[in-house]
């Protein structure tokens, strides 16, 4: 079988000229695109009020579920923090209606949003370090920059798409449990998290397992959403989840941010692919 012929001197000169154009012109065009897109993503997270440096505006999100009306409520988001919560819970057994809200002096930081915003800021910082006057000399230099930017964007996206898995004792010990007035009953746990573009509230109703219970006690491990029947130990008690209520609301600007992340990652990968194509023309790596 015939082997592929090496490029001639003329072909090599044309390829080298095309590669220089790629490094000097197209790379910077892509970087400008990325800067513009990520600036828009950053503005979504900033959510300015009056002026860019003003406080983030408050947004109310009505929580609902197509499967149950046991839990209804409104969560108020201010930037990356829940500043207010107003929740009604209808107890399944006796239809008793419970109402609980955040204490006025409390806010709950949503670490997922804060982390995603920080990763976007880091990606922008990496891009801004290569202004229009900067001359890329090798393809490897471009690949290294794209890998670094893609790492930050992937981490930002993952913080929104992959909520933390928590054990029930971790949820019980979280500060969120102690933020409500009146105080939550001892047989309730709550958790709030971001999943993709949604703000999610989960309420767990518990019952105590008696010492003479014939149930085989198996503590549940970490999970984003625990199911009825999950067991755990808290203090001197053994508890079991009897009911789980999950309600959620879409945050439109988080959806925008996820789209910006996807488009930016595609641009980075396309530029990497163009750089890598040139390596197939040489047996050695001129970049």
TrEMBL record:
Record's GO cellular component terms: nuclear envelope; RAVE complex; synaptic vesicle
Q: InterPro entries in the record, alphabetically?
A: RAVE2/Rogdi (IPR028241)
A Pfam family assignment: Rogdi_lz
Q: Biological process GO terms, please?
A: bone mineralization; brain development; enamel mineralization; gene expression; hemopoiesis; locomotion; locomotor rhythm; memory
Q: Where in the cell is it found?
A: Cytoplasmic vesicle, Secretory vesicle, Synaptic vesicle
Where the protein is mainly located, per its record?
A: cytoplasm
Q: So what family is this one in?
A: Belongs to the rogdi family.
Q: What is this protein called?
A: Protein rogdi homolog
Q: Which gene encodes it?
A: ROGDI
């Amino acid at each position: 079988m015939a082997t592929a012929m090496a490029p001639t001197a003329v072909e090599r000169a044309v390829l080298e000229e095309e590669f220089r154009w790629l490094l000097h012109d197209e790379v910077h065009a892509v970087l400008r695109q990325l800067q513009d897109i990520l600036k828009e993503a950053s503005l979504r997270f900033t959510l300015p009020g009056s002026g860019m440096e003003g406080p983030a505006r408050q947004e109310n999100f009505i929580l609902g579920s197509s499967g149950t009306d046991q839990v209804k409520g409104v969560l108020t988001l201010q930037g990356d923090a829940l500043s207010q919560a107003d929740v009604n819970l209808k107890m399944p057994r006796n239809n008793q209606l419970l109402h609980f809200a955040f204490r006025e002096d409390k806010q709950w930081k949503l670490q997922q949003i804060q982390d995603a915003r920080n990763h976007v800021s880091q990606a922008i910082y990496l891009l801004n370090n290569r202004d229009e006057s900067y001359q890329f000399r090798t393809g490897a230099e471009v690949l290294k920059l794209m890998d670094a930017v893609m790492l930050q964007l992937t981490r930002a996206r993952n913080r929104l798409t992959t909520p933390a898995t928590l054990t029930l004792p971790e949820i019980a010990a979280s500060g969120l449990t102690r933020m409500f007035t009146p105080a939550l009953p001892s047989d309730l746990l709550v958790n709030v998290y971001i999943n993709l573009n949604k703000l999610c509230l989960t309420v767990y109703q518990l019952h105590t397992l008696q010492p003479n219970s014939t149930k085989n006690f198996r503590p549940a491990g970490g999970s984003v959403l625990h199911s009825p029947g999950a067991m755990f130990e808290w203090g001197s008690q053994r508890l079991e989840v009897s009911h789980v209520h999950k309600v959620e609301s879409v945050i439109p600007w988080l959806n925008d941010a996820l789209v910006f992340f996807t488009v930016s990652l595609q641009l980075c990968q396309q530029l990497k692919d163009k750089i890598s194509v040139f390596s197939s023309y040489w047996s050695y790596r001129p970049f």
